[in-house]
Amino acid sequence: MTAYAPEFVPALLIILSVCLPLLLASALLMPAWRSAVIRVSPLASLPGLLCSLAVPNGSMIDVPWLLLKSRFGLDEAASALLFSTALIWWVAGVSARQTARRDSLDTQFFAFFLLAMSGNFGLVLAQDALSFYLFFALMSLATYGLIVHRRDEGALWAGRVYICLVVFGEVALFAAMVMLPGTVDSPDLVLDGKTSDLAIALVLVAFGVKAGLLPVHVSLPLIYRAGPTSAGIALAGAMLNAGLLGWLRFLPLGQEQLMGWGEICLLAGLFAAFYGVAVGLTQRNPRVLLAYSSISQMGLMIIIISAGFISPDTWPLAQAAVLVYAAHHSLAKGALFYGIGLSEQGTTAGHRLWKFGLLLPALSLGGLPLTSGAVAKMALKSTVHTFPPGLQIWLEFLLPLAAVATTLLMIRYLSLVWSHDRQPEQKSSIPWSWIVMLLTMTLFIWFWPLADGSASASLEPGMLWNALWPVVLAASMWRALHGFGWNRVMEVPAGDLLVPVVRIWHRLLDLVPKFRAPDYTTAPRTLRRGLRRLDPLWDKLEQGMADWIFVGISYLALVLVLFILFM
Amino acid sequence: MSLILTVPWMAWSILLPLGGAVATFLSRRYASRLTLLFGMATAVCVGALGWQLALKGPQRHHIGGWQVPVGIDLYADGLAVLMLAVTALVGLLISFYATAYFPKAGQEETGDQNVASSVYFWPLWLFLWGALNALFLSADLFNIYVTLELLGLSAVALSGLSGKAEALSAAMRYLFVSMIGSLSYLLGVALLYNMYGVLDLGLLASEVRPGPTSQAALALITVGLALKTALFPFHFWLPPAHANAPAPVSALLSALVVKASFYLLLRLWLGVFPTVINTTAVDLLGFLGALAIIWGSIQAFRQRRLKLLVAYSTVAQLGYLFLVFPLVLRGGDFTAWGGSAYLAVSHAFAKASIFLASGIIMHVAGHDRIDELAGIGQRLPVTMFALALAGVSLLGLPPSGGFIAKWMLLNAALITGQWWLVAVIILGGLLAAGYVFRMLAHSFTPATWISFEQPVARRMEWSAFALAAVAIALGLVAEPPLTLLQSSTSFAGPGLREMIP
Amino acid sequence: MSNAHLYMLGGVCLFTLGTYALLTKTQLLRKILAANVMGSGVFLVLIAGAYRSPSGLPDPVPHAMVLTGIVVAISMTALALVLLGRMVPGSRKGDKE
Q: pTM for this structure?
């Protein structure tokens, strides 16, 4: 990374990373420019990519006129996530261009796409609370447009669930920000002073909506399934990490020991790690499976985050580990998602390169030696010793099991995707963007200073064996399961918890006499109908207030009450 | 330079629109062009006034050179100039929209019902503009009464412009409310004058003391202005009046006119009568504001017609403004009253944009029944985008002026420890999400067939869009307007903030 | 109680009567008249106030205010009558049939 770039180049790159997608999005308003903008839209992430490579850590620009004094720049967390984020958005852009249908909906899709991209870059680069919030909201809202792009029933339902959770998350975040010490007045994202428990809970939930925290994870499987491939790549790769970054930024990690929160996070993470795999294994749709894999992987990252509460002194080490893990996971997930998209498009039918290319990210997630996954697992493992001894024993035992589970899930994924593959109808080719992605995913971690220690440690013979046996065990377990007839196992519906919740909601509505809720796909509409039941009451009250007599009485009453109150 | 500093821009910013009103009434052929011309000249005056303010601080102008107490004063501080600037910008964009909305004077023989309205729209609107500017600048209780009446006259006439039965009866109701409101105000003024013998706000502020007369006068003035601001439970007249008027008129009424009487309440309560008001009284106003937020939002959510939905949302948003009173009096300071003023400003832009956009939708679809608007988003992408942006500001999501304002109000509520207001602000945001989403839902509904073939003038779409863009920009660039606001002082001399015990 | 106070009280009574009528009467013309009564009440309060100057000479400012108020009241009444005229079909000169 060159530290010799002139002063204004870093500043320019930081500004362009955020503004170029915005500018392109506004250029879509001009009908004449639309097709050209759509053609160049993958390049909108280029400044971000350059920024992550060329701009040294610690470069900051102040924008005093924006909001209440904004600051953008790169610190360790931002520069660690910027590279994978930019790469994912580039790949997503290429994929979006491939599947563009050249109709009026395209313009809308790309507008949302570019806005979400700008939001994502903005939140990564934001160094003050308000800007982070602004760009986080921009990304969250623009993503709605990506999810409902297909306009079929599943997409609209996913969009509804998503937007409800987003509004809920935004309100929680807003409340949390007001409560957090030091976010209101100072522009910096530095938390000073004691953070209240309520604020911590709100931050966890607010970003958990994006990062797939149980139990607010329910929208993840739905939106992965509903959106087009490009949206899925961006969601699974880049936007998941936005939630993670939110935690890193707003939680008081590494400040004081908060044993209670640490244990809550640890347990939640462990539970999610296995729950995600368990539900994911039953899935028939590879996209939904990937969503559950993300929930499980985020569980592992939450375990590392809990270290920031339990042993604050060693937090810098743990933060580096979680960043390495997040970067690895986002690239691998993005590649897996792209793989599904390619097979659906039919461009890869029967292609060997595609078939074996998919092995790479899949086994990397399982932590096969020599892959980025092995390094990430190593980083994860290196944080174990920062936990108190009582917890260490459990983690030493459970983390390899998690690796086995993840590998099992990935084998299931491969079997699903491969079995959907058809015989080649015509000569097909693999897009080079996917190959670039695979190569980057495999190689980047070996050249990354932040991952240096873990990378070399993962090459030690003992570690190689430690990384290898879960994969081998998982493979043999899969054979056993397959022979047992796994495919007959009941599929847990996508959105698991959501289904009973919606059912209970409808039961409750049924309790209201003379009212039957229809199919759950219209839940918000039933809410509106519930309100309509009260229509006569509202109307009566409103008409009553429009009556001149009522006006007269309230006029007189208010004058008298005010007169008396002023005494 | 010296010209800018010495010319009485305040007087010109009132005289120009009034002169324009006469000119457009006489020359109907060029009415729309004259309006734009006079409007731009007024905007220039306001700009120059702002410059004066920046260089020399708050300005006072003695009309005709007469000193108080005999003469009448105009007074401009940051708050007043900001309101003038908002009026000018919103007004110009609405005028621009109206040039395409109303048929040209030459096409009168078509027998269109809009023709009668187009003839009178321009002079009435300039008349209204002059009244607004005079109201914002007046520093004299009786002069304020006159401006209130001018405002009421032109607003009522504008709201009945279409001549349709519902519009006329709504205008009639509006007229009666306006009459009761301004006569209550005048009775309050009469009591105050009999007691203190002064009308100038600055002099009054230094002389006023608690007592039955002051109490009765302030109670009458407050209720009169609350009627005109459509504070719950006096909101009954607003939805029909705003929803049945032509689109540019709805935009003017919702964006600017209702803010004027609120502006007076803010000035009088905090600037002139801080010795009379107390915490129980401000809590009552805050409580009514909270009820307005909840009631207006519920009603907005229930509406089947787009324009009624938007009008009820005005009722809810006006409720937010009244939260300022409990917030300031318990020590909220600039965070509270600045936030409230900023909400009034950003709501002006957002609501004007939404009403103009609904006007376009009504023009294209021929109706504004929300459930039958599927597919309109594909037909009118720019309008839909404007609606979405303005909706973001209404919701108070970042980046928007509404966000900054609610952020400030929420902070004030937390600083002063008024948790019930925190709850109300957040609940109001959630309810707003409900009706804004309902307003926008049809842009995402797929249309099986598109029947909206009416052509629509581009400048109409872009005016609505520009207004929404300003509402968003107010969130991005918040420092300058807030600094301008902070330079406000009360009429008595010391800053508004120092007046509060 | 001085004469001035008596007049003032009378003015307030007129105002209250007018308000009552405006709110309870259903016919629009009566409402318009009631509003005028309200206005007269306020004017009476103002004029009575002019009396109280210690020098014995009446204060001219309330007179000016009442004059202005009358002009405003006339314009308001005119507008109200025009609206009323439009609401009643066939009452306008321009209306054919």
A: 0.73
Count of domains observed in chain A: 1
Nearest to A14 by CA among A43, A64, A41, A52: A52
Nearest CA-CA partner of C31 in B13, A548, A168: A548
Q: Which residues of B touch C (CB under 8 A)?
A: 142, 145-146, 149, 152-153, 156-157, 160, 163, 165, 168-169, 171-172, 175-176, 179-180, 183, 186-187, 190-191, 193-194, 197, 199
What is the least distance, in Å, from the CA of C31 to any CA of chain B? 8
pLDDT at C1 over 60: no
Give Cα A29 to chain centroid, integer Å: 29
In 3-state terms, what secondary structure has residue A324?
helix
pLDDT tens-digit readout, A430-442 = 788 888 888 888 8
CA distance C25 to chain B (A): 12
* Domain membership flag for residue A106: no
The better pLDDT of the pair B333, B308 is held by B308
Cβ proximity of B201 and B491 under 8 Å: yes
Which ipTM score applies to this complex? 0.91
Res. B417 pLDDT band, cuts 50 70 90: confident
Mutate to test the interface with C, among A548, A553, A554 (most CBs of C within 10 A): A548
Beta-bridge mates of residue B305: B369
Q: How confident is the model at residue A186 (pLDDT cuts 50, 70, 90)?
A: very low
Residues with Cβ within 8 Å of A474's Cβ and at least 6 positions away in sequence, in order, are A366, A403, A404, A405, A407, A408, A411
Note the pLDDT tens digit of each residue in B354-396: 999 999 988 888 888 887 787 777 778 788 889 988 998 998 8
Q: C36 to chain B: which residues are within 8 Å by CB?
A: none
Distance from CA of C65 to the nearest CA of B (A): 7
Lowest mean pLDDT among A359-373, B48-62, B111-125, C34-48: B111-125
DSSP string, A107-175: HHHHHHHHHHHHHHHHHHHB-SHHHHHHHHHHHHHHHHHHHGGG-SHHHHHHHHHHHHHHHHHHHHHHH
pLDDT (mean) for A131-154: 86
Q: What are phi and psi of B73, to 5 degrees?
A: -105, 145
Please report the domains of chain C, with CATH numbers, ordered by start residue.
Answer: 3-87 (1.10.287.3510)
Chain CA centroid to CA A179, Å: 24
Q: Could you list the residue range(s) of the whole structural domain that residue A557 is in?
A: 535-567
**For the segment A93-130, what is each residue's pLDDT rounded down to a tens digit?**
988 888 776 666 778 888 899 999 999 999 999 888 88
Q: What is the pLDDT of residues A323-337, one digit of tens each?
A: 999 999 999 999 998
The reply to whether A555 falls in a domain is yes
| Length of chain A (residues) | 567
Q: Which helix (H) or strand (E) element contains residue A305?
A: helix A286-310
Distances (CA, A) of A96 to A93, A102, A121, B322, C22: 5, 11, 18, 48, 66
